[in-house]
Write a structure and sequence with these properties.
A two-stranded antiparallel ribbon has the order 1-2. Strands 3-4 form a two-stranded antiparallel sheet. Strand 1 and strand 2 form a beta hairpin. It has one domain. It is 52% helix and 8% strand. It is mainly alpha-helical. About 3% of the residues have low confidence. It is found in: Cell membrane. InterPro entries: Pra-immunoreactive, RDD. This is RDD domain-containing protein.
Length: 178
């Protein structure tokens, strides 16, 4: 028997081959309202997180009196906390806690995984554009009118937000005679 044909793959080789398999699935686009409610939940979480992490600094160091022009150290730390939450949760879990509650995830538009560059452009550059001026928040209204439900931040990060696969029940329907 030829040795080349009798090679039994090791467990490590089998796992590597399984990881290389790709699976195609259809992911439905998450619309404006489900994303809006998830974002509101995230704002509550970020506010709570900021309070837990930064209140000791506010009390001990009075960080709002430390300023650089119009910026305060407290404002800077709050901003870093918020951007950090959205960036790290999206990169490592493809969803924030708000998105988890509502069953939606961030997907790469072009690849099978989210790169750091995609996440940084989506969560930092995109959110900065949306939040830099009061009226730029209106740019979120692009989402309901886009066929793929993608906002500017999604386009910058080459991402889209989709519904997680849902479990369901197959039912039999009767067709009505017309």
């Amino acid at each position: 028997m030829n040795e080349e044909h009798s090679h039994v793959p090791s467990e490590h080789e089998i796992i590597e081959r399984q990881d290389q398999r790709t699976e195609e699935k259809t992911v439905g686009y998450a619309g404006f309202w489900i994303r809006f409610w998830a974002y509101l939940v995230d704002l509550i979480i970020v506010s709570s997180l900021t309070g837990i992490l930064l209140v000791p600094f506010y009390l001990l160091l009075n960080v709002n009196e430390l300023t650089w022009g119009v910026f305060t150290l407290g404002g800077f730390l709050s901003t870093v906390t918020a951007f950090g939450y959205f960036t790290l949760m999206t990169k490592y879990f493809r969803q924030t806690l708000g998105k988890l509650i509502f069953g939606i995830k961030v997907y790469s538009y072009e690849n099978s995984h989210l790169s750091w560059l995609d996440v940084v452009f989506r969560e930092i550059v995109g959110r900065f554009i949306h939040q830099s001026l009061v009226f730029t928040n209106l740019l979120y209204l692009i989402v309901p009118f886009s066929s793929e439900k993608r906002g500017i931040h999604d386009r910058l990060g080459h991402t889209f937000v989709g519904l997680e696969p849902r479990k369901g029940k197959v039912i039999r329907t009767e067709e009505e005679d017309i």
